[in-house]
Amino acid sequence: MAKISLGMKRKATESSNLERNSEAQSWIDRFAPQSKEKLAVHKKKIEEVESWFARNLISKKFEKGKAPILLLVGPTGSGKTTSLRVVAQDLDIHIKEWLHPITQESNTAQGSAWREGGQQDYPKESVVEHFMDFIFQGSRYNSLFDNDSQRIILLEEIPSIFLRKPEEFHEALRRYQAFGRCPLVIILCETSSSREFKLFPPEIKRELQIHTISFNPIANTLLHKAIRDIIIEASKVCGKNFTHPMDSVVESVVQSCQGDLRLAVNLLEMNCMGTAKKLANFEKKKPKATKKDSKAATTGIGAKDSSLYLFHSLGKILYSKREDKIIHELPQHLKLYERPPTKEVPEEVFERTCVSQDLFTRMLENNAVNFYGSVKSASNCAEFFSLGDHVNATWDPSGVLDSLAISVTMRGLMFHLEKAKGKTHFGTFKKPTYDRRKTDDLALQVRHEFLMHGTSTEMLVSDILPYTFIIRPPDLSQGQWDVLNQCVLVRKSQMNTRQIEISEKDVFDEDDEVRVGETDFEAGEKVLETVSGAAEEFEIEEIDFN
Amino acid sequence: MALYVDKYRPKDLEKLDYHKKQASWLKGLVNGGDLPHLLVYGPSGAGKKTRIMATLKELFGSGVERLRIEQQVFTTQSKKKIEIRTLSSNYHIEVNPSDVGIQDRVVIQELLKNIAQTQNVAVTAVQDDKERKKAFKVVILTEVDRLSRDAQHALRRTMEKYMQSCRLILVCNSTTKVIPAIRSRCLGIRVPAPSSSEIVGILNYIAKKESLNLPQELAQKIAQSSTGNLRKAILMLEACRVKQYPFSADQDVILPDWEIYIRDTANEIIKEQTPQKLFDVRQRLYELLSHLVPPQLIFEELLQRLLEKTDDSIKGRIIAEAALYEHRMHLGSKPIFHLEGFVAKYMAVYCEYQEEAAAMFD
């Protein structure tokens, strides 16, 4: 229900009666931008939204059965909703917003379902129906109270049921397009790309001509400006309770919120208002605190969840951007090792990536090759992969080495990477193709088929199998032939060299990998089962070696 | 299938072709009717297994040659099922615990417990006192050097516990990867590779039995390229016969595919030293790995081939680097990293050498 209260407050601010409700509101609502000029969003984006409205609403050009749909995507706090509201207000467009019914209706519905004995699907139906009713009636009928001849329907909360059944949602959109009378705007917060992809797959976007405007995190300069404006305004309004924030605090707020304006304003309010005195003091205590320190300090009080996509973190490590200036000068004989500090702390990058060490190293290793400028740097970098693996395998009960292994790899890599001159690498990263599980399965198969001929894989693979393949003894079973064909001809086989690229927003689901592996394994087991059937027969007739 | 390798494998200690002294010594060992734990080590194809089987035959009689394949299932503590296949007779059981990867500890513990707890009925049924002493089963564990640390420690404990009812014969290529605690509990038996002339002798013997006309040059050549691996030599002989018979003296010896592939890879490395080439080489290494060629073998072969084409002045350095990476490979878990690391290092050193050489000429 938060949305409703928020909406109401916004209306209140529209009447610009700040004094009346000064204490009750959070800064986000009190200092919400009232005009286009004050929006911290990039101008181009606002223009894009405006022009879409101009095309689709003002001119009312869309014919029947072609209600336009606009999709706004972007990370939290990038100003999607605010821009929309401001633009709508500017153009005198009325917004009707869908609010998810958590009210008595569904409660009683559930209750009655209980009473009637297990018609569990009733409440679900009601939400979907409710939703459909809303979007159709909302588009058709004017409000009784307002003159809202120009209106749009805003959909910010998509009923969760649609996430499970995206087809139903697509159907709803299709019907809306056919019967709706006014534009539909959908705002989707981009937590992970899978949601956008699920609800709006490319074919649906094309079919329904959904126009997509994607918002980026707000740039730090704009963020700075917005925050300063708010501070000025707040110092006028708030009076006694207000403590003027230090520059370092402002800086740290901007740093830690990563383009999330909402979060930034929240942090600012916490820092400036009386309740957060302690924090301000804490900041003051170490005036010499470097940028990083203050960053760490504010991260503690609710900075943004800053996880990275694998694609980005690979880039951060492999491009290993450095500052312009060298901080620590080295003596002459060590000049060779002098580097400016890196822009990223590798451990942080890894931590924010949320993948396993194993996968991350494999991805790095697979893609680092494209970044080696010379053989020398290649050998230095490769050495650190080797060292990292070595550290990783050293068993250590205290677990200290665990985190060290990846650290060794990344830092060694970043230190030794030299950019190839005049050669730019375009951002494709590829998944490693080598599938250890598959190899293990093959090894097991080999061992099973040729158990009588030797019990070590090394022995079998190194000489027995290749020569058996040439000698072609007449009494090989089909299974043995299959195995031979699979593992003897190294030269002729073309390994599947097509490497799968990972795209920018791939969320790497390691479970997925495991799942694929498991199905492989199951297939392997099936093979084993048939083989073991054969083995049982073996057991009956004993094999005499004489 | 009766490959020559199997057909002409000596079955008795007396019939062994080389290391005769060791054979008689082994005979003396089992004469008393008992056996300590053994650790048999030596290079591939030297005849470790042949000697073990002959010893067992000496001990138990020809019953050890009646082999059967069995499927054993174990359950780990986390209720995961592990299957492993064993080769066994009434008197012994042969198993390669590294088949199950990191679960090898469970296999060692459970398998040995099962075996040790059941009496060997075939032997106890005999009334003879001397025979009764043999109331133990023999467990042959192959590739002990590939056992995980965990498994090796489990093994050490089990060895002491079940000494009463079972004897272990551990087989490996090198004892360096076996923990000292195990080494000290076993009687070590080293089986060195046969000399080149011994191999030639055996090849001639087989050729005579098969009534083949084997030119001595070819026999020499086979013995040369087998590098002391008798099994490989005999397989080569048979492969040569399949390819071309009657033999000619200058006939090419057939090498396994992977060896040729590694040779080609080494040539590629010599030809060009660029990051792009490194990438290609890595693809090739992956190719080898996915064809099950053990990383250890790739490493050795690659180093050999590279050294053939390397100037003496940097050989020492290359070998030192190779030793370092090989060592790390054993301790680590991703062989490709170390292989690639070595190749990159080689490229860098080779490049440097070439630049220096060019500078000297100028």
From TrEMBL, chain A:
Entry-linked Pfam families: Rad17 (PF03215), RAD24_helical (PF25812)
Gene Ontology CC, one term: nucleus
Transmembrane segments: none
Compartments where found: Nucleus
Alphabetical keyword list: ATP-binding, Cell cycle, DNA damage, Nucleotide-binding, Nucleus
Superkingdom of source: Eukaryota
Family annotation (InterPro entries): AAA+_ATPase, Checkpoint_prot_Rad17_Rad24, P-loop_NTPase, RAD24-like_helical
GO molecular function, one term: chromatin binding
Domain named AAA+ ATPase: residues: 66-224
BP GO annotations: DNA damage checkpoint signaling; DNA repair; mitotic DNA replication checkpoint signaling
Protein family membership: Belongs to the rad17/RAD24 family.
Name this polypeptide is given: Cell cycle checkpoint protein RAD17
Organism: Galendromus occidentalis (western predatory mite)
TrEMBL record, chain B:
GO annotation, biological process: DNA repair; DNA strand elongation involved in DNA replication
Main location: nucleus
Oligomeric and partner information: Subunit of the RFC complex, an heteropentameric complex consisting of a large subunit RFC1 and four small subunits RFC2, RFC3, RFC4 and RFC5; the RFC complex interacts with PCNA. Forms an heterotetrameric complex with RFC2, RFC4 and RFC5; this complex has ATPase activity but is not stimulated by PCNA. The heterotetramer of subunits RFC2, RFC3, RFC4 and RFC5 interacts with RAD17. Interacts with CNTD1; this interaction facilitates crossover formation.
SMART domains: AAA
Protein name per its UniProtKB record: Replication factor C subunit 3
Organism expressing this protein natively: Galendromus occidentalis
Recorded family membership: Belongs to the activator 1 small subunits family.
SUPFAM superfamilies: P-loop containing nucleoside triphosphate hydrolases, post-AAA+ oligomerization domain-like
Cellular compartments per GO CC: DNA replication factor C complex; nucleus
Listed GO MF terms: DNA binding; DNA clamp loader activity
InterPro entries referenced in this protein's UniProt entry, alphabetically: AAA+_ATPase, DNA_pol3_clamp-load_cplx_C, DNA_Rep/Repair_Clamp_Loader, P-loop_NTPase
This protein's UniProt keywords: DNA replication, Nucleus
Primary role: Subunit of the replication factor C (RFC) complex which acts during elongation of primed DNA templates by DNA polymerases delta and epsilon, and is necessary for ATP-dependent loading of proliferating cell nuclear antigen (PCNA) onto primed DNA.
Domain of life from the UniProt record: Eukaryota
Entry annotated with the keyword Ribonucleoprotein: no
Location relative to the cell: Nucleus
Keyword Cell division: no
Domain AAA+ ATPase: start-end pairs: 34-197
